[in-house]
Amino acid sequence: MFNGLIRELAEVKSYQNNILSLKAHYRPNLGDSIAVNGACLSVVKISSNGFDVELSKESRTHIATENLKHKVHIEPALRFGDRIDGHLMQGHIDILGKLEKIQKNENGVDFFISLPKQGMKFMADKGSIGIDGVSLTINEVLKDSIRLTIIPITFKETLFQSYEIGRRINIESDLLSRYVYAALEHKKGLSWEEVEKISYLY
C-alpha cells in the first residue's frame, strides 16, 4: 500500500527490455515494492547510485510508458504503523487520463484531465484520486473530465510544473469507490436497507 506522498524525483538512467533503471538517493531492498509514477513495481537490482525495477506486460499495458524518461515520481510502500497523510493507494493504475487544460487559480493551478467513460463512474466531487502517484482531491467532476487544484507546495515538489497539454497521466481511482461500485454492480436492484448495510462495511 502507498499513500500518494512522493518520496523523491528519481532520474531515469534507462528504460529498455522492460527494465527501468533509476538513479535515486532512496535505497530499497531487493524485491521491495516501489510506486513509480503511481505504478507498483518490484525492485530487481540494486546499484551504487540507484536501483532497477521490472515492468510486466500488465504494467506496460496500463501505464503511460512514454513518460518513463528524464524524471519520475517514486514512493516506497508503506510499513505497518506508518503515518498516512494522503489516502490509501494500491499502486494499481486502472485508467489513463489526458491533460486538457492548465489554468492559474489564485495561488494554485487547476489541471483539467479528461477520462475514458469507464473511469468517470469512480469520480466524485471532493473524492480522492491518484495522479501519477500523487494523492489529490477532485475539486469538480465535469461531463467527461475532472478538475484538480494543485497547491503551491505540491506543484513545487512534484513533476507537475513540467507537465504539458496532451500528456497521458496514470490514474488510480479511489479504492473505496471501486469496491462500492463492484458490490452494487454485483447486486443490482438493491433496497436502500441493503445499500446502508454495504456502506457500513467501508
What percent strand? 35-45%
Overall strand count: 12
Uncertain spans: none
Principal-axes geometry comes out as: globular
Q: Tally the helices.
A: 5
Largest sheet, spatial ordering of strands: 1-2-5-4-3-6
The helix/strand order is: EEEEEHEEEHEEEHEHH
Mean pLDDT: 91
- Note the gap between the termini: 17 Å
From the alpha carbons, calculate the radius of gyration and give it in angstroms. 18 Å
Helix content: 10-25%
Overview of this protein structure:
By secondary structure, this protein is α+β, with helices and mostly antiparallel strands. Helix content is 18%, strand content 40%. It is built from 5 helices and 12 strands. The chain has helices spanning 57-62, 117-120, 152-157, 175-186, 192-200, and strands at 8-16, 19-23, 33-36, 39-47, 50-54, 71-76, 95-105, 108-114, 128-131, 134-141, 145-150, 168-173. The mean pLDDT is 91.
Give the tags:
202 residues; 6-stranded antiparallel β-barrel; 12 strands; globular
Quick structural overview:
18% of the residues lie in helices and 40% in strands. The chain has 202 residues and is α+β, with helices and mostly antiparallel strands.
SSE layout and pairing:
Elements: E1 8-16, E2 19-23, E3 33-36, E4 39-47, E5 50-54, H1 57-62, E6 71-76, E7 95-105, E8 108-114, H2 117-120, E9 128-131, E10 134-141, E11 145-150, H3 152-157, E12 168-173, H4 175-186, H5 192-200
Antiparallel strand pairs: 1-2, 1-6, 2-5, 3-4, 3-6, 4-5, 7-8, 7-12, 8-11, 9-10, 9-12, 10-11
